[in-house]
């Protein structure tokens, strides 16, 4: 029978062995979870990032979905066809190269007419006749495209009969535009989804796919056992593929429809409304970032009013955080501004982490003149105050979101480089590195596959603090007028617009300032918790 002392010693040794077998990331995560305030801050940041990613479906002046008729879009199609035919008419009169220029214009006009023809409801009165008119125009354009496509001399002028045919189609399109609109089919529309570009769709696809992949790794060992490069390829490739397919099937276009003027089918004046809704689903905050309301300029938050706010349309909702001097909903600006502020922080930190990791790794591994050269470069960059250096560069360049990201990334890498250099100086003489050298591993393999993974813990901690600093720096630049331009919102821009109305409308500075404070505080809490969790001397203290 084993003694209690030996049993205790054995169990203690087993615990230490199990802990040593865990990866460093697993140990840091285990210690991080013990800090409840940091966990709460991390959850809050995840929620904030999700709100920023899904902003088009949370705050938008376009419906998320509706079933009905978009008469305005149909009118825009006819006007576009008229413009194309007028362009074709002008190009057809040129002395040279007319056929080469007119053919693609007619092809585009035919495509739009086919789209418009498919929208006509032939089951209603006048629908069949209107469909025949559109089909007649389509056939005439097709008949003109045949001789143009096989025109013997693409550089010569068009014959008079083709020019007259284009003029006749143009006149018929003008007559069609002035006539009464035909009955249109009622179908489903998704305006908020249709306005997404490739970058928006990539982030939305990633926000949906990455949690699903995380759950898959917990439920199935197949995904978890795949090599790391395969997992990274899947995590980046699936959203990229989805975004590419989206851009291909949904070409970017400017939707000028004023959906707030839409009415339900039951209303008597629905026949003349630009949009008719059978069923409609609006976002939680049905306002746009460029939706100016002159009747609600500088309105205080709705919860502070004794009387309910006057709404401009039946689809509007109260302005819960008030409006700015242009009548734009402040909550909408904060939600969309989070996309700019958070993206600047994340991208800028990604840029300077990449630079700092590479330079710090080279300095710490090779030492000698490489270390001296990189260290002197770090000291030179550190000599310049970051804010003034960024202000100088941004003032010389055109203020834009991309320039701000690049400038912050190019000026903030020194701290990361020094951290990585110190870690490499500590690790380069350890046994696993010496064993790799004796086997014949290349310097690139030793640096990036063996030493760097063991030196990333302090870099991750620095990254969280760096994101907070980048958000503050972007807000400062926007506040000084050197950030993104209106109407693109950012928290710093909202602050800058509200500073002249601090006494009349204090909410214009209170809420964006609070958003910046909460975000920066949460990132700092996460950074401090990661720093403590990565320190072996502090593990198990909570």
UniProtKB/TrEMBL annotation:
InterPro entries: BP-dependent_transpt_permease, MetI-like, MetI-like_sf, OppC_N. One of its GO terms (cellular component) is plasma membrane. CDD domains: TM_PBP2. SUPFAM superfamilies: MetI-like. Belongs to the binding-protein-dependent transport system permease family. Its main location: membrane. It is found in: Cell membrane. This is Binding-protein-dependent transport systems inner membrane component. The lineage of its organism: Bacteria, Pseudomonadati, Planctomycetota, Planctomycetia, Planctomycetales. Residues 338-527 form the ABC transmembrane type-1 domain. Keywords: Cell membrane, Membrane, Transmembrane, Transmembrane helix, Transport. It comes from the Bacteria. Pfam families: BPD_transp_1 (PF00528), OppC_N (PF12911). Residues 1-20 are annotated as: Disordered. GO terms for biological process: transmembrane transport. It is a multi-pass membrane protein. The chain crosses the membrane at residues 37-59, 199-217, 229-247, 340-365, 377-396, 402-420, 451-473, 511-530.
